[in-house]
Amino acid sequence: MKPPLxxxxxxxCVACSREKAGNASASAYTSDSDSTAREVGVAGTNSGSExxxxxxxxxxxxxxxxxxxxxxxxxxxNLTAYKNMAGDLINSMIADIxxxxxxxxGHFRALSDSILSDLGGxxxxxxxxxxxxxxxxxxxxxxxxxxxxxxxxxxxxxxx
Length: 160
What we know:
By secondary structure, the chain is mainly α. The protein has helices at 2-16, 35-40, 57-69, 76-99, 107-119, 134-152. Helices cover 56% and strands 0% of the residues.
Protein backbone atom coordinates (compact mmCIF):
# COMPACT_ATOMS: atom_id res chain seq x y z
CA MET A 1 0.00 0.00 0.00
CA LYS A 2 2.91 2.37 0.61
CA PRO A 3 4.41 2.30 -2.93
CA PRO A 4 1.19 3.63 -4.59
CA LEU A 5 0.95 6.37 -1.95
CA UNK A 6 4.60 7.29 -2.49
CA UNK A 7 4.06 7.30 -6.26
CA UNK A 8 1.01 9.55 -5.86
CA UNK A 9 2.96 11.98 -3.65
CA UNK A 10 5.79 12.15 -6.19
CA UNK A 11 3.33 12.79 -9.04
CA UNK A 12 1.74 15.59 -7.03
CA CYS A 13 5.12 17.19 -6.33
CA VAL A 14 6.08 17.05 -10.00
CA ALA A 15 2.74 18.54 -11.08
CA CYS A 16 2.97 21.39 -8.58
CA SER A 17 6.54 22.22 -9.50
CA ARG A 18 5.61 23.03 -13.09
CA GLU A 19 4.21 26.46 -12.13
CA LYS A 20 6.66 29.32 -12.43
CA ALA A 21 6.44 31.68 -9.51
CA GLY A 22 8.32 34.43 -11.36
CA ASN A 23 5.15 36.12 -12.57
CA ALA A 24 3.10 35.42 -9.48
CA SER A 25 1.33 38.27 -7.79
CA ALA A 26 -1.22 38.91 -5.11
CA SER A 27 -3.43 40.35 -7.82
CA ALA A 28 -5.11 38.56 -10.68
CA TYR A 29 -4.43 41.62 -12.83
CA THR A 30 -0.66 41.82 -12.53
CA SER A 31 1.87 39.77 -14.43
CA ASP A 32 4.53 40.08 -17.11
CA SER A 33 7.51 42.36 -16.55
CA ASP A 34 6.00 44.90 -14.14
CA SER A 35 8.06 43.93 -11.11
CA THR A 36 6.69 46.72 -8.91
CA ALA A 37 3.11 45.59 -9.36
CA ARG A 38 4.22 41.99 -8.90
CA GLU A 39 6.06 42.79 -5.69
CA VAL A 40 3.38 45.01 -4.23
CA GLY A 41 0.48 43.07 -5.73
CA VAL A 42 -1.68 46.14 -6.30
CA ALA A 43 -5.18 44.87 -7.01
CA GLY A 44 -6.70 46.21 -10.21
CA THR A 45 -3.45 47.13 -11.92
CA ASN A 46 -2.97 45.86 -15.43
CA SER A 47 0.67 45.31 -16.14
CA GLY A 48 0.46 43.98 -19.68
CA SER A 49 3.40 44.57 -21.95
CA GLU A 50 1.59 46.72 -24.52
CA UNK A 51 -0.61 49.78 -24.57
CA UNK A 52 -4.35 49.09 -24.60
CA UNK A 53 -5.83 52.08 -26.42
CA UNK A 54 -4.06 51.95 -29.83
CA UNK A 55 -5.99 48.85 -30.89
CA UNK A 56 -9.29 50.68 -30.18
CA UNK A 57 -8.41 53.89 -32.01
CA UNK A 58 -9.15 52.82 -35.63
CA UNK A 59 -12.74 51.82 -34.81
CA UNK A 60 -13.41 55.08 -32.92
CA UNK A 61 -11.84 57.19 -35.65
CA UNK A 62 -13.91 55.39 -38.28
CA UNK A 63 -17.07 56.03 -36.27
CA UNK A 64 -16.13 59.71 -35.81
CA UNK A 65 -15.63 60.07 -39.57
CA UNK A 66 -19.01 58.49 -40.27
CA UNK A 67 -20.74 60.73 -37.73
CA UNK A 68 -18.96 63.82 -39.09
CA UNK A 69 -20.23 63.16 -42.62
CA UNK A 70 -23.75 63.45 -41.27
CA UNK A 71 -25.39 62.00 -44.37
CA UNK A 72 -27.81 59.98 -42.22
CA UNK A 73 -29.28 60.54 -38.78
CA UNK A 74 -27.39 58.75 -36.03
CA UNK A 75 -29.01 55.40 -35.31
CA UNK A 76 -29.75 55.02 -31.55
CA UNK A 77 -28.30 51.47 -31.53
CA ASN A 78 -25.11 52.68 -33.20
CA LEU A 79 -24.91 55.58 -30.75
CA THR A 80 -25.20 53.15 -27.82
CA ALA A 81 -22.41 51.02 -29.27
CA TYR A 82 -20.32 54.16 -29.85
CA LYS A 83 -20.95 55.30 -26.25
CA ASN A 84 -19.70 51.96 -24.91
CA MET A 85 -16.71 51.96 -27.25
CA ALA A 86 -15.81 55.54 -26.26
CA GLY A 87 -15.97 54.62 -22.57
CA ASP A 88 -13.68 51.63 -23.15
CA LEU A 89 -11.26 53.79 -25.13
CA ILE A 90 -11.12 56.49 -22.46
CA ASN A 91 -10.52 53.93 -19.70
CA SER A 92 -7.75 52.33 -21.78
CA MET A 93 -6.15 55.71 -22.48
CA ILE A 94 -6.13 56.63 -18.80
CA ALA A 95 -4.63 53.25 -17.86
CA ASP A 96 -1.94 53.59 -20.56
CA ILE A 97 -0.98 57.11 -19.48
CA UNK A 98 -0.73 56.21 -15.80
CA UNK A 99 1.11 52.95 -16.55
CA UNK A 100 3.61 54.91 -18.64
CA UNK A 101 4.32 57.05 -15.58
CA UNK A 102 2.78 60.32 -16.71
CA UNK A 103 0.63 62.35 -14.40
CA UNK A 104 -2.41 64.18 -15.68
CA UNK A 105 -2.34 67.96 -15.37
CA GLY A 106 -6.14 67.81 -15.29
CA HIS A 107 -6.71 68.57 -18.96
CA PHE A 108 -7.00 64.95 -20.04
CA ARG A 109 -9.42 64.00 -17.25
CA ALA A 110 -11.53 67.14 -17.78
CA LEU A 111 -11.77 66.52 -21.52
CA SER A 112 -12.63 62.85 -21.06
CA ASP A 113 -15.30 63.80 -18.52
CA SER A 114 -16.78 66.28 -21.02
CA ILE A 115 -16.88 63.60 -23.69
CA LEU A 116 -18.62 61.13 -21.40
CA SER A 117 -21.00 63.87 -20.29
CA ASP A 118 -21.84 64.56 -23.96
CA LEU A 119 -22.87 60.93 -24.28
CA GLY A 120 -24.92 61.00 -21.09
CA GLY A 121 -24.64 58.91 -17.99
CA UNK A 122 -22.93 55.66 -17.29
CA UNK A 123 -23.45 52.14 -18.49
CA UNK A 124 -27.06 51.11 -18.92
CA UNK A 125 -28.41 54.59 -19.56
CA UNK A 126 -29.32 55.55 -23.12
CA UNK A 127 -27.02 58.00 -24.92
CA UNK A 128 -28.24 61.60 -24.94
CA UNK A 129 -26.10 63.12 -27.69
CA UNK A 130 -28.30 65.07 -30.08
CA UNK A 131 -27.48 66.14 -33.63
CA UNK A 132 -26.72 69.77 -32.71
CA UNK A 133 -24.00 68.71 -30.23
CA UNK A 134 -22.35 66.24 -32.59
CA UNK A 135 -19.70 68.57 -34.14
CA UNK A 136 -18.49 69.72 -30.70
CA UNK A 137 -18.38 66.16 -29.44
CA UNK A 138 -16.41 64.94 -32.46
CA UNK A 139 -13.91 67.78 -32.02
CA UNK A 140 -13.51 66.96 -28.30
CA UNK A 141 -12.94 63.28 -29.00
CA UNK A 142 -10.33 64.05 -31.66
CA UNK A 143 -8.58 66.43 -29.25
CA UNK A 144 -8.54 63.72 -26.58
CA UNK A 145 -7.05 61.22 -29.03
CA UNK A 146 -4.36 63.76 -29.99
CA UNK A 147 -3.55 64.41 -26.30
CA UNK A 148 -3.25 60.68 -25.70
CA UNK A 149 -1.03 60.12 -28.74
CA UNK A 150 1.22 62.99 -27.67
CA UNK A 151 1.49 61.59 -24.14
CA UNK A 152 2.44 58.06 -25.18
CA UNK A 153 4.53 59.03 -28.22
CA UNK A 154 7.77 58.66 -26.31
CA UNK A 155 6.85 55.55 -24.38
CA UNK A 156 9.34 52.85 -25.37
CA UNK A 157 7.84 49.58 -26.53
CA UNK A 158 8.51 46.81 -24.02
CA UNK A 159 10.31 43.78 -25.28
CA UNK A 160 8.83 40.43 -24.22
